[in-house]
Amino acid sequence: MENVTPEEQAAYQPEIHISAEEAAQVQANFMRQVYAWMAGALALTGGVAMLVGSSPEIIELVAGNRLVFWALLLLEMFVVGYISARAFEMSVSSVTGAFVAYSALNGITLGIIFLVFTADSIASTFFVTGGTFAVMSLYGYFTRTDLSRWGNILFMGLVGLIIASVVNLFWLNSLLYTITSFIGVILFVALTAYDTQKLKALAFVGLGDEDTDRKAAVLGALTLYLDFINLFLFLLRIFGRRK
């Protein structure tokens, strides 16, 4: 998870010596929390998105007014940045509330995909995303390969993808759209495995401190949630059937 450095982790991590079996149990319990929070956030986002997609009035407010749409996107970026940077300084309720609020906000902006793609293709792409995410997350969790060497490459790829996507908002080139879609899928497939492995280390940050453990779990859930949502959107660009 790029937003928490090893030095920051060490500041919150108590020096406690445990056996390998106990360490594995701590990681398993932590990841169960992470996946539970992530699943809850995805359910909330999906529910809000379907509600928005079924309401012409809300769709008109969000999609028909660029100012509202971009304001929502900027607010989402602010909330994500704030949680990532200040999670361990916030109270448990504040971190949780911010994550829930972000999930709902994201559902509002994602609701517009129902204007562009058929409901069947959205549903099928969601299940494809779920399967792909599960496989790569399990790989990241169980592999003995050190995936930390992917970090710089993935970061540079993410920066390049963002720049190319912003450029294409103005250029509107279909070839670049297709290329960035496939690159986005590859990038977030790799990030899913990479982030999952990094989260195993985060499991020990809150060892012996229930509040810190909960904050770390929510922060981890946010990381994997973002991987899932972005993977879903790029897959939808490739496989989604337009209306």
UniProtKB/TrEMBL annotation:
What residue intervals traverse the membrane?
34-55, 67-85, 97-116, 122-141, 153-171, 177-195, 216-239
Pfam (any one): Bax1-I
Recorded topology in the membrane: Multi-pass membrane protein
Instruction: Kindly list the places in or outside the cell where this protein is found, as annotated in its UniProt entry.
Output: Membrane
- Could you list this entry's UniProt keywords, alphabetically sorted: Membrane, Transmembrane, Transmembrane helix
- This chain belongs to the protein called Bax inhibitor-1/YccA family protein
Which family is this sequence assigned to? Belongs to the BI1 family.
Kindly state one GO CC term assigned in the UniProt record: plasma membrane
- Cell cycle keyword on record: no
In the record, what lineage is assigned to the organism producing the protein?
Bacteria, Pseudomonadati, Bacteroidota, Cytophagia, Cytophagales
What is the predominant subcellular site recorded for this chain? Answer: membrane
Q: Does the keyword rRNA processing apply?
A: no
